Amino acid sequence: MAFKIEQCSVLQKHRLSYKPVLPKVLQKGPAGVVAVYGKATKSVADQAAVKKMFPNTYGMPQISFKAGTNKNITKKAVRVAVVLSGGQAPGGHNVIAGILDGLKKANSKNKLFGFIGGPSGILENKFIEITPKLMADYRNTGGFDMIQSGRTKIETAQQLATAKENILKNKIDALVIIGGDDSNTNAGIIAEYFKQQKIDTSVIGVPKTIDGDLKNEHIETSFGFDTATKIYSEMVGNICRDVNSARKYWHFIRLMGRSASHIALEVAFKTHPNIVLIGEEVLAKKMTLAQIVDNLAKVVVARAKDEKNFGVVLVPEGLIEFIPEMKALIAALNDLLAQNEKQINACKSFEEKKKFIISKLPANLAKLMASLPSNIAAQLMLERDPHGNVQVSLIETEKLLVEMLKTKLAELKKQGKYNGKFSAIMHFFGYEGRCGVPSAFDANYTYALGYNASVLALNKCSGYLSSVKNLVKKPQDWQCGGIPLTMMMNMERRNGKEKPVIKKALVELKGQPFKVLCAHREVWAKTESYVFPGPIQYYGPAEITDITTYTLRFEHLKK
Ligand code: FBP
To answer: How far is the CA of 430 from the centre of ligand 1 (A)?
Structure first.
């Protein structure tokens, strides 16, 4: 009997034909949607500075959509382009499917193009037409591979002029940028530039990031957070069960989430680890690295007394930037690396580089830098991303914590305060979660975000982020509209300069999700309350397939 290996998994075949559920307001297509304009808006902070930088797009009203007959939608065929920007997140292809279907429903002659490889595709004028036939191979799939992604930022006068030239050359009526906080800041900059240049092309953003830190009252979550946290939770749950079976290791698991600790918190709700560190709490309590390690040691020692030399610790990858002393060091390094590029590049070895940097740092930070293990010091000095962020996914914070914890436990042993065994296994779960097959929630949400973006585009709204909310309800009842990108901005220091950026939504210590953690963590530390969520379910009862995150549900409790 001949065996045949299929090119496409059985699940994938089934997912290709899944029809996402559209919110009621969008179900009649763009011509059946009317925009209702709210009051003028202002930025979340630094209003005068943001207004000065966005004179043409600051203060625009919020938009909410309602069912009705829209006579303003252009009858002439339009050309829309889409670009994926930044890190991958499950559901990106469905955003594109939603845009395509919305455009085609309005006019079968409308066309959608995809710039290749992220924003650099706009600058290099590399694009393809996204036809219904091409789209059919990517519906409800994970990944960004149809047109790929990238982190290029379009900000210099030259880059903006090139973007304008290519957009005009290709007669693009609207550009949809699917990205996180930095990419949507960039969308805001391009929207402002096009208005200033009197170009009729609208620019619309779509909130993407597994990190879950692009959110506010109108953007309840970014897409990908639901699927990624389900994937990580399956893996963490499996480790919890292994830990509870073998009872001999402490597992330290670093989880992606560049700045905010939302991912670690959500995974903790789903799995009940013994410890979950929350970066925002570390910052608020001004904890030092040594204090974090002391707290870890307390739990390890207490469990050892019950002969439990095992456990699970979740570490958000952004933790390092929240520790005040490390935050100050990273901020100083960001400026130093940006301002001394030539001299640093001329250094022949890592040691030479480190010496040069230490010579430029203030005494307290120089001491801290010198005290760090070489691998961590080297990781802190790695090149920043184009938006000026330190690449925390490359910093092995879990190893730093384990090394320091070992030293602490050895001291306690000498003092007769600890009599256990400590054997640690370290993991980093990051890239594993970014391209998974989107959960039912993310498949529906991304499709709605894309369809909604097509409606914004056809209404010539520029400088808006696609907003789909009321997400704890059924998709049919989700509310749609747009919120001005400038409304989410404040001023921050990036690459050594003050820049307007969309403010990241961090874990709020007064918020419901963190309060729930506080109510449970003591018990989780002492006991084995582990939960094993298992894999994402795509078929079966809605209570299994359609469930949203704890974070979203707890946040809705406050309303
Ligand atoms: P976005 O904010 O662009 O969505 O990316 C987030 C993220 O997945 C972080 O969680 C992670 O630290 C980072 O991307 C990794 O970046 P890269 O893909 O460039 O290695």
So the answer is: 9
**How confident is the model over 448-476, as a mean pLDDT?**
97
Assess whether pLDDT exceeds 60 at residue 559.
Answer: no
* pLDDT tens digits, one per residue of 310-321: 999 999 999 999
Q: Which residues line ligand 1 (CB under 6 A)?
A: 86-87, 89, 151, 180, 208-211, 256-258, 317, 392-393, 434
CB of 432 within 8 A of CB of 235?
A: yes
- CATH number of the structural domain 26-224+438-494: 3.40.50.450
- Name the pTM for this structure: 0.95
**Whose alpha carbon is nearest atom 5 of ligand 1?**
87
CATH 3.40.50.460 domain residues, the chain: 225-434+510-558
| Region(s) of the chain under CATH 3.40.50.450 | 26-224+438-494
Q: Is 70 exceeded by the pLDDT of residue 546?
A: yes
Q: Could you report how far apart the first and last alpha carbons of the chain are, in Å?
A: 61
Surface-to-core class of residue 4, CB atoms within 10 Å of its CB (0-12 exposed, 13-18 middle, 19+ buried):
exposed
- Superfamily for domain range 225-434+510-558: Phosphofructokinase domain (3.40.50.460)
**φ, ψ of residue 370 in degrees (nearest 5):** -65, -30
Instruction: Express each pLDDT in 155-176 by its tens digit.
Output: 899 999 999 999 999 999 999 9
